[in-house]
Amino acid sequence: MTYHFRQLEDIFKAFQYSQNTLEKEQLFANIMNVIRPKLMMKFRMLGIDHQELEDLIQDTSLKIYLALHTFNFNTNVPFEHYLNRLVYSVKKDFWRKRYAFNQRQQLLINECVVEYRLNQMIKRTEELYLTRLSKEDLIDSFKKLSMFEREVANLLLLDYSPSEIAKRLNVKDKVVYNSIQRCKIKMKQYLLKYKC
Q1: CB neighbours (10 Å) of residue 68?
Q2: CA 85-89-93 angle, 5° bins
Q3: What range defines the domain where residue 183 resides?
Q4: Residue 9 is part of a domain; what is its CATH number?
Q5: Ramachandran region, residue 145 (left: φ > 0; alpha: ψ -120 to 50; beta: rest)
Q6: Contact 79, 73 (CB under 8 A)
Q7: How confident is the model at residue 106 (pLDDT cuts 50, 70, 90)?
Q8: What Å distances lie between residue 193 and 150, 186, 196, CA to CA?
Q9: In this structure, what CATH number is given to the domain that contains residue 189?
Q10: Cβ–Cβ < 8 Å for 180, 188
Q11: What is the number of domains present in the chain?
């Protein structure tokens, strides 16, 4: 790899000294044609998918392009060393971003779970409250019923069948059915008049 970078240093210097934009673009394309496979090898070791690999290479290419304008080739530090440091920093940035993204995603999931549970609790509380109100309204509507009708309605609420109610109260089935109909009518009138 060092051999290739020694060859490229002349192209790097030509890139730095060139005043022509088109020539700079061609020189940079030549540089990237040589460097790109090496970057692919270095980033492929991260075990990431192709799109992320392309993003990392593009990010590194941009940083190389910006660095070529200001890099001092007269020092003893070779550009290869700078490139290795650049790749190292891009890798670290990638893992930092990946970690932050995963953390953010986990926080969003936790937030959704908490919100879902809160909504479930609120829904349960509302249902209990509405059930209690309905029960109170139903009990209030019993005030308009006669004693016999009230007895039949209470037994119906306890899940007795009309025939079981008739046996329990020692009356005919027809009397119970008529009483149930009267209960429905009276309770409906009461609820429509006072609760709606």
Answers
A1: 19
A2: 170
A3: 145-194
A4: 1.10.1740.10
A5: beta
A6: yes
A7: very high
A8: 19, 11, 6
A9: 1.10.10
A10: no
A11: 2
pLDDT one-digit tens code per residue, 20-36: 778 878 888 888 888 88
Which token pair is 137? 């309204």
Which ranges constitute the DSSP H helices of 45-78?
A: 50-70
What number of residues does the chain have? 196
Residue 38, token pair as written in the block: 């090496």
Q: Is residue 13 part of a domain?
A: yes
Residue 187 in tokens: 């309770």
Tens of pLDDT, residues 61-97: 888 888 777 777 667 777 778 888 888 888 898 889 9
Q: What DSSP line would sit under 145-193, residue for residue?
A: S-HHHHHHHHHHHTT--HHHHHHHHT--HHHHHHHHHHHHHHHHHHHHH
Q: Write out the two tokens for 118.
A: 């809160």
Report if residue 162 sits inside a domain: yes
Distances (CA, A) of 76 to 80, 87, 115: 11, 20, 59
Clarify whether residues 86 and 6 are in a common domain.
yes
Residue of higher predicted confidence among 67 and 117: 117
Domain contains 60 = yes
Determine the Cα–Cα distance for residues 161 and 183; give it in Å rounded to an integer.
15
Kindly report the pTM of this predicted structure: 0.54
The whole-chain average pLDDT of the chain stands at 84
**C-alpha dist (Å) from residue 179 to 139, 140, 160, 183, 187:** 17, 18, 14, 6, 12
